[in-house]
Amino acid sequence: MSFLNTIRGFGRSSKKNKKELDSSSLVHNQIQFANSHSPTKGHRSGQQSSRQMSPKRSSHSSTSAFNGSSSIKEQQLPLFLCEPFVKTALVKGSFKTIVQLPKYVDFGEWLALNIFELFNNLNQFYGVIADYVTPEAYPTMNAGPRANYLWVDGNGQTVNLPACQYIEYVIAWISNKINDQSVFPTKTGGAFPPNFMKDCKNISRQMFRIFAHIYHNHFDKIVHLSLEAHWNSFFAHFISLVKEYNLIDRNELEPLLPLI
């Protein structure tokens, strides 16, 4: 279903080639992290940390803070809004026809399939630049000067995390969701739970934040690899889906509204 089959196989670059981006050596590795999702607790494995993100404790797993009201015209345009990159796309035209619910297809099945595919592709794209998202270079999960995303820990407290840690928590949290049969059933006759739509909205919101962070901080790496057409088309596909089914509030889209 996804038009991004052309980039499958991309993933994290090895440390050996970390000083330069070489698309031929990028290998997608499974994301692991050792930090606890509570800064006051000891280290745990990635699997253990992700399991502690329960629906009650982390269904709203982060908050965002917007500062200032200066217009984009008063600032230097970010690279992704500059010519020719802003108009570069692998697929031209509207994505509406490929995100609309097909006839005789169950709505829950269709939404689950699209979110599953989009998440896997986003995970692959993040793998391309993951080694460069270091705590030293990106100590906060931001999407430009006006958006900073905070994580809600197990105690309900908002904490400022490095971008790499925030994204890895999000990836683990979404992975647990889509692999949970009680949330995303795959067996014949399996019914979608009453809170399925809420989970889809939470997942879509977190995915958007990763999009926003990459656009504002790592688009130069995407351009260096000549993947801007794939990336822009992928984002257009994602936005078409969330707009079609009203999965993300407009105020959440603010960091990328000029692009949208």
CATH architecture: Up-down Bundle
Briefly, what CATH class? Mainly Alpha
N-to-C series of helices and strands: EEHHEHHEEEHHH
What characterizes the major β-sheet?
A: 4 strands, antiparallel
CATH topology value: Butyryl-CoA Dehydrogenase, subunit A, domain 3
Low-confidence stretches: 1-74
Helix content: 25-40%
In short:
This protein is an alpha+beta fold. The chain has helices spanning 46-51, 55-58, 96-99, 107-129, 163-178, 196-224, 228-244; strands at residues 12-13, 26-27, 62-66, 141-142, 147-152, 158-159.
How does this structure look, described?
Belongs to the MOB1/phocein family. The longest helix has 29 residues, at 196-224. The chain has helices at residues 46-51, 55-58, 96-99, 107-129, 163-178, 196-224, 228-244; strands at residues 12-13, 26-27, 62-66, 141-142, 147-152, 158-159. The chain has a single domain (3-256), classed as Butyryl-CoA Dehydrogenase, subunit A, domain 3, CATH 1.20.140. The strands form two sheets. Strands 3, 4, 5 and 6 form a four-stranded antiparallel beta sheet that branches. A two-stranded antiparallel sheet has the order 1-2. The protein is an alpha+beta fold and 260 residues long. 38% of the residues lie in helices and 7% in strands. Helix 4 packs antiparallel against helix 7 and helix 6 (196-224) packs antiparallel against helix 7. Residues 1-74 have low confidence and may be disordered. It contains seven helices and six strands.
